[in-house]
Amino acid sequence: MSANIETFPGTSLSQADFDEGKILTTHWRPKLDYGWDAGVAISRYLAELKNGCIIGTKCRRCRRIVVPPRMVCEWCWEPTDEWVYLEDTGIVNTFSTCYILWDASRVKEPQLPAVIEIDGASKGAGILHLLDEVDPKDVRIGMKVKAVWKPAEERTGSITDIKYFKPVESNGTIQRPVQVAPSEI
Amino acid sequence: MRNVAIVGVGYSGFRSITPDMSYKELMYEAAAKAYEDAGVDPRRDVESFVSVAEDFNEGTSIFDEYVPDQIGAVLKPVHTISGEGIHGLIAAYMQVLTGAMDIVMVEAHSKASNILNLSDVVAYAMDPIYNRPLGANPLFIAGMEMNRYLYETGTTEEQCAQVVVKNRGNSFLNPSAAYGASLSMDAVMNSELISYPLKRLEISSHADGAIVMVLASGDVAEELADLPIWIGGVGWCNDTPSLETRDWEGAIYARKSAEMAYRMAGIRNPRMEIDLAEIDDTFAYKELQHMEALGLCREGEAGFLVEEGATELDGELPVNPSGGSLGVGHLLDASGLARVLEIVLQLRGEAGRRQLMDVETGLAFGWRSIPTTSGAAVVLSI
Amino acid sequence: MGMRKVAVVGAGMTKFMRRAQETGRELAHYASKMALDSSEMTLDDMDCVALGTAPDAFDGVHMKGEYLSDGAGAWRKPYMRSYVGGGTGVFAAIQGWYHVASGLFDTCLVVCEEKMSSCRPHPQGAFLTIFDHTTERPLKPNLVWIFALEMNRYMTVHGLEKKDIARVAVKNKRNALDHPCAQVAADITVEDVLNSEVLAWPVQRLDISPTSDGAVAVVLAAEHVAKRITDKPVWIRGVGWSLDSSYWTNRDLYYPKYVEYAARMAYDMAGIKEPRKEIHIVEPYDPFDYKELHHLEGLLLADKGQAPRLTAEGVTARDGNMPVCPSGGLLGVGNPIAAAGLMKVSEIFWQLRGEAGKRQVPGKPRTGLAQAWGDLMQVGCVVILGI
């Protein structure tokens, strides 16, 4: 069928068409405000962040300790109501050096998003955060890092109470990661 | 065609606010109860999971990302239906009919309390070029339709108000309902005029909650449930979303949904063969309009029926014994599943003080509210 | 298995464009009309409509499915919208499949549409809202982060270099030169990719597909109807889908387990025991070049870490032993999220019927696989088609 069709429908416009006013447009800026109930698990997580601590939950069946905390183990379908205080150090599971912001605009100084496996939680249990106080060229998967917190009076109970993670010791070795095997059902 | 039944139900709620629980925890509670009721382990037995959600009702894009963990569906077939709760139920039903799966669940929830400017969200559903720029509160759509409905059918404003009195009264007997109240006709008629002729107390208030149902095919259903609730027929239909070209009377989407469902269920005389109905009453007049469109009475007759008490709990055709959205609370797209939930509880004999006698066949109908013309129906029986 | 057989009997699509003049409804209409015309059926012949479209935030309409329904031919018909993020394009075909396989309907029109250009300042911005509102959004993550994190993990675990991956972008963009709807077809080299702007290391500009507007539609029919309409129905032999945990930071991203689970479900249904022998054409989801490799491994069509070698050896070229993305994929044709997945299904449809024109893979392929992916590195949807 597509061998027989010569032209396909669709009229392509260019940015210039808009800039030169050739296209009529309507604009709408939506007002979308939400106040999400954090619930039992995340409320505790945020409250502990305000205290300068990272907390996780433990599944009584598979014994996994996970972070961010949750009320049910998604593997075992068991409630996870055992709380476990974790360290505020960890290792870098993966990272990137990013020169674009959320709205696609460019920056000169890159951000360093990373997944950081938190010490005290099960292997592979990580959180998303940023790295800083490190040269992007020196970041390695397997690197040990520590959280840098906002001063207590500035903490509000948010993931940003941790400003970023920075390297603890930099010996530059690349560790071969071991895959985390989830509990089989 | 395979027989498919609802073998387990569970819910969390329904309350005007649920500050103690995140949406994940509401879903978990409803799912845990439903799986317990059905006697299934989601990790082992449930083969497909259907979630009903709209991004802007959640405040999260691609909301299906956040579904599997708390319903036991990780690394299993899961998908979202952006539609009415009953659409989700039907999607689950169709999957069982294919023969590829025997046990499928459906979930829907509302966290309306977390949407801080809900009318702006509803306005965001309107056509961006023709309608939104007018800047009107979308409730005008309901006002206009009610106006036309009263004009076409001769139904009176008092008859619409009676729906509110009935439904919120029914909700007093419903422990899960958020808005049980003993209202007088005067109170409703004198409530603030929102969009002529629609009055404030005729608009259902929102509530939070979650509902989960487990469906199973024939033999499996018999094994799992003492009293499987069989799906006799389903029907759904979309009319146009356009305000300019739609037919403003008759709720055609409801009529066609019902025709399809009755045909499948072998129902020729719905008034006689349906024992109870749980149908959308987001706005009081909608209950009457839907009754007529669903063939439960003639056009213009619904107002008389509610006036005479024929649709009360002790009437000849109880409509919305749960209290409907007016009494239970409007659960956004989960409202339709709340309608189904009541039918299931009534047919099982688990409806407590609201229990109707000798009910075997029920009709549930959901509508996606303004500005849509989208609805879905299901006929259930024991 | 005793299941009702369902075939694809027609397909249609619009051009994929960075910004289309047409509204979402008009795009959906064009694609639907073309699909119906191609199978010589009318809208009256369609018993139901299944729509797939991804975030409402792009088109800027809440309950976008309702808004688009008229354009998708759904007036006064049973109509449903399914949604699994980027997986939606292939999932819509699965949803259409269960409409017909259920026995409730004999025909179904499946439509996928996306109009990303409406979103300002840049459609990319809408992706901020896919991250967890409490634990992640305050960090202002952007979509490219998550791809970069996954790509870095994949490359590090397997010891790969960028050039091993860049070959996919070269192959697909070149394949797309033969696709009349392509938005970003080009003749580029591996060097071009390696020299392109670094967005979020290791992701560079030419590693990624563009944002696009477009629509695709297919017509599905039950066996007795399909055989009446065409002498070349393309049967849906197997479907599979799987969604992994939202806690993506607790998972090892180097391998897409959910793609494997979806593939196994589809292979089982299709009775396929040796996919590497029995699947002749593959259209995996390729929003980024490394994703094609990642997915080939998840689909069990290459050993873990070995997909780059297959590309280097030409196995996945159009004239290779296992052509991958002969259409040009998302990297070459464009990425209007939901429509892109259905474009892959349509490509397999046209290829198996020998109607893919200059893109036709040689050797009379009989079985093809289309796969889409989406969410937070989470969902795999697979459809296996055969003649």
Question: Can you describe what's shown?
Answer:
The complex is a heterotrimer of chains A (185), B (382) and C (387). Chain A is mostly beta strands and 185 residues long. Chain A is 9% helix and 29% strand. Chain A has one domain. Chain A is built from two helices and nine strands, in the order ααβββββββββ. Chain A starts with 14 loop residues before the first helix and ends in an 18-residue tail after the last strand. By secondary structure, chain B is of the alpha/beta class. Chain B has a domain at 4-116 and 206-224: 3-Layer(aba) Sandwich (Peroxisomal Thiolase, Chain A, domain 1), CATH 3.40.47.10. Helices cover 35% and strands 19% of the residues of chain B. Chain B is built from 14 helices and eleven strands. Chain B is globular, with a radius of gyration of 19 Å. The two termini of chain B are 18 Å apart. Chain C is α/β, with parallel strands linked by helices. In chain C, helix 4 crosses helix 14 and helix 6 (162-175) packs across helix 11 (289-298). The mean pLDDT of chain C is 96. Classes of the chains: A mainly beta (185), B alpha/beta (382), C alpha/beta (387).
